[in-house]
Amino acid sequence: MSEITYLEAIREGMREEMLRDGNVFCIGEDIGTYGGAFRVTAGFLQEFGRPRILDTPLSESAILGASVGAAIMGLRPVAEMQFADFVANGFNMLVNFAAKAHYRWGAKVPMVVRLPSGGGTRGGPFHATNPEAWFARVPGLKVVVPATVRDAKGLIKSAIRDDNPVLYFEHKYLYRRLKDTLEGEVLTPIGKARVAREGLHVSLVTYGSMVYHGMNVAEELAREGVEVEVIDLRSLVPLDEEAILESVRKTSRVVVCHEDTKTGGFGGEIAARIAEKAFEHLDAPVRRVAAKDTPVPHAPQLEDAFAPQPADIKRAILETVAY
Amino acid sequence: MPRTSRKSSEAEFRSTTQEDLKRHDAGLLLGLYRDMVRTRALDNRIEALYKQGKLVAGCYSSRGQEGLSVGSTAALRKDDVIGPMIRNLGSMLRHGIPMTMVLRNYLGRANGPTKGRDGSSHFGSLEHNVIAPISMLASLIPVMCGVALSFQMRKEDRVALTWIGDGGSNVGDFHEGLNFAGVLKLPFVLILENNQYAYSTPIEYQTAAKDFACRAQGYGIPSAKVEGNDTLAVYEVTREAVERARGGAGPTLIEARTMRMRGHAIHDDAKYVPQEMFDEWEKKDPIATFAERLRKAKILDDKVAKRIDVEVKEELEQQTEDALAQPPADPAHEIDEVYAP
Fold first, then answer.
1. Among A111, A114, A273, B302, which is most buried by a count of CB atoms within 10 Å?
2. Strand partners, A100
């Protein structure tokens, strides 16, 4: 078994599902001949051909709309947004058409939208956002955010098999940084969080790229005698609320962290649920570590000032422990 | 509001003659007539139920556009898929949706097609090959392209058809969808119903183009223009487009000229429409004009007309009774079925 990257894990997961189920197809801009802007679908056109690997005009709304229509008819489209930011051009198809179809008239919409998201790559205002909170509040959509190689593969496979529209946020910073060896069938259940690291003193509830940074901080703090429990949510909708509450009951102190901006970010929802359901277990206020409330800036100095850094996570944890 | 004249030449809009009528089977012609009568009867019943306070919220009349809906849908096979808009009641009935289903939805009944979760004719039924619209106009175009794409991928010789208005054709999805359909040569037909007004906005405030059909050129696809109140012409033009789509030759844009004979919805008195326009179009009423033509061709007479009226009335009464007898939507199930299991 050789090591594969997070990016290769996504590709492997998609490929396995394409081979398993003839209804699965890929649709997006530059995904065929070019293999996708990040090469996630490299080799697919050669292996599966057109139309199962479908290069489209530059039309995000048409890509997502056509995916909705094909999914209602029983196919299983995997649509790629070249960058998560561009999903704004197809917003209506997701929040009004896909999200409401089953509730309104019982139509299943088994589609996946792949959203290369996040910063750390100096992408600037239109190539580095984390728009998961735009969708996590829309009833009818599922939102998953893999943070590991295993879940990159396990969640894309589960998303493809799900009978609902699933938004799959893949983090560009993790694409080639994370490596792992996977064996056998890898399926990650949607709606189930993972205890990435056990700890007694404080819980760090996080997802996506912040799991990577949070784990590094936790290791550093362990050497200083602070045991951090890291909860990797893996899926925001449905949310594994019980996993969060269980950890809070154990540590009594919580830091919530995400790379998305703070106001209206998903961290607010997590903090509210903890306040509603585990208030009496808390020994300190819930702290949020998130990006500043600005667009994502381009220059390295600015992006680093914008996005939560390991030092910010560490400071919030130490303040929470000392409270 | 003064109406500027921006008419294409009359000859550009296809219409049919009495001679053309003879080329068609009497059964088909009577079927078209009958489905138009059914549509208007249901439309009137919905209005009456609203006035009796039995149904709440918007009622959207398709009065004056019945021929367009029925004629275009008649050009399809039952396994073709339609995406009707709010004024395509006739398309739904023609494609097999029972009246009670429409009424149960308007009435918000627990066992209606949306269980009270959406209203009016805003529903779909996969069993009947009908996709539900959403209120954001033109969204159905890319979605129906996806339906057509599924046929193309599965090598099924089925066709996807939907409609759009003069107003809705200015939404970006119209452009993205038709361009997408053109590139992929999808088995797709789009009928643009120019009914002169989008809510209160006349067509000269919608586009500076001389007509709507000319837009097809920009997508490299064929177009046609038809008199929307000439039900037979609509049928013939749509049929040609459907056959082209089924044969793998790709999509067509059809512009049909008609008139919305009521307000946007029942609350709207449409005072912004000059009375002369209503008077002019009333003379072109699709049902009255078609009946007259059928009588001239000796396909319809008093006896047959009477029989159709009686049968439609019976159907309407029975279906209304059925819908009214259904239980109201149940708040206990408000939170259910947001997700597929």
1. A111
2. none
Tokens coding A237: 């909708």
H/E run at residue B252: strand B252-257
Class of domain B14-326: alpha beta
Helix (H) or strand (E) holding A168: strand A166-171
Structure token pair of residue B117: 């979760």
Q: Does B56 touch chain A (CB under 8 A)?
A: no
ipTM exceeds 0.90, yes or no:
yes
Asked whether the predicted pLDDT for residue A42 surpasses 70, the reply is: yes
Cβ neighbours of A144 in B, within 8 Å? none
Query: If you write DSSP's letter for every residue of B129-192 in order, what string do you get?
Result: TBPPP-SSTTTHHHHHHHHHHHHHHTT----EEEEEETTGGGSHHHHHHHHHHHHHT-SEEEEE
Q: Where are the domains of chain B?
A: 14-326
**A298 belongs to the catalytic site:** no
Note the pLDDT tens digit of each residue in A228-274.
Answer: 999 999 999 999 999 999 999 999 999 999 999 999 999 999 999 99
The amino acid that residue A121 corresponds to is T
Tokens 């049929």 belong to which residue?
A: B239
Could B153 and A93 be called an inter-chain contact, meaning their C-beta atoms sit closer than 8 Å?
Answer: no
C-beta contacts of A215-224 below 8 A and 24+ residues apart: A216/A310, A217/A310, A217/A313, A217/A314, A217/A317, A220/A310, A220/A314, A221/A314, A221/A317, A221/A318
Structural domains in chain A, CATH included, are 4-180 (3.40.50.970), 194-322 (3.40.50.920)
CB-based contact A102 B340, cutoff 8 Å: yes
Of A57, A58, A17, A20, the C-alpha closest to A168 is A17
Contact A68 B149 (CB under 8 A): no
Residues 100-139 of B with CB under 8 A from A: 113-114, 117-118, 122-126, 131-132, 134-136, 139
Query: Of the candidates A101, A132, A114, which has an alpha carbon nearest to the alpha carbon of residue A235?
Result: A132
How far is residue A160's CA from residue B218's CA, in Å, rounded to a whole number?
36
Q: Which stretch of A107-116, A142-151, B1-10 has the lowest confidence by average pLDDT?
A: B1-10
pLDDT tens by residue, A186-223 = 999 999 999 999 999 999 999 999 999 999 999 999 99
DSSP class of residue B263 equals -
Closest residue by Cα to residue B254 from B268, B273, B265, B240: B240
8 Å CB contact between A168 and A158: no
Q: Are strands B188-194 and B160-165 parallel, antiparallel or unpaired?
A: parallel
Q: Which helix (H) or strand (E) holds B51?
A: helix B26-51
φ, ψ of residue B298 in degrees (nearest 5): 60, 30
- Partner-chain residue, chosen from B81, B150, B172, that has the shortest CB–CB distance to A61: B172
Phi–psi pair at B43, nearest 5 degrees: -55, -45
Residue B272 is among the residues annotated as catalytic for this protein? yes
